[in-house]
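Why does residue order matter? Because the sequence determines the fold. Keep that principle in mind as you read this record.
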Amino acid sequence: MGFPDRRATVDMLVQRIMGTTFDITAEPPGSSIAKSKSTTATISKTGPPPVARFTWFVVVYNIAVILWGAYVRATGSGAGCGSHWPLCNGAIFPATAQTQTVIEFTHRVTSAVSLLLVVLLLIWCRRRTVKGAWPRYSATAAAALLFNEALLGALLVLIDRIGGLDRSAAHAVFLCLHFGNTLLLLAALALTAKWLSSRDPRFSSVARPHQMISTGLGLVSVMVIGMTGSLASLGDTIFPSDSLRHALMQDFSASSHILLRLRLFHPVAAVVGSTYVFWLLWSLWRKQDHSPWMFILAAALITQIALGAMNVILLAPIWLQMMHLLVAEMLWILLVLASAELLLVEQLWWPCTRTDPGPTSEVASRSRLTVKPLPRMLCDRSFFRRGKGPACLL
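Structure:
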């Protein structure tokens, strides 16, 4: 008979360990362990807690804000409030109802609401998680990135780099930094939502150093795709073409503006960054249970490639640019979550005998058990020797 399925074997061993009698009342009610076990029970019975559902709402809301910001750029409405920030044309509420002013002012209002939501998320997350929980760190990072996002947007306005669709190199640099920060913000929010939805928001890394380096470089290469895409969209907006032939001639002409020649970097970056997506799909395929991320990622990648080709053929209409950006944001979030699943494993809690006398209270005296974290290393083949069963569990 062949070697049994590794995941089933380790699951059986974990169940045996977890089957040991454990009484949560042996821990003080306010301890981090009691909070962790209580949260785990709540999630398993009622689904994700309210803070997790709120975080997913914040993710969706920020995607909408980013799409509207792209619409501001595509319609040339960035100067709708003049060179004033946070005021609009020197007033809290704009006195004119011009289309560009309404578009830009709406973007500022929705961005301010996003800032309030993320601050509320940070406070709520810190109140509902224990010290050392990963969502605390990712929520803090999201708040810092959103403040940085607002700072970059304010600098674009105050130094007057957006009036009349500025063609300068400084505007291109600010645009790349702005979009790169946006991708990091989405990653932090998505990880916070995912981790808050887990049974216990504490994880252990099971990746080897080369896997962590490859994942980091891969995610950076995908970010470069988005940053070069923002430059390509700016070039399409400032220098519209009347035919595909004319657009291609602009890309290869030495006399064309630098923004037009930089458009070529976007498809090149897309080819390089796609290698990481394929590597991630291959890594997920190697897992015994064939993670559902694999099929979702493959569908998103095919859709994004098709939208990119249509964007070139149809000369980048605004509605298609919005669709392309929406799928790009969804693909980015899926990549971040799938990469985290590949590198991290959720910790289980297993009981063991106390080595210290422990609390002297009547409740605690009934048990001499404590808990220790046990990472679920279910997919690493190094923990098994073929034909000999599991080599170790820790």
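The longest strand covers residues 344-353.
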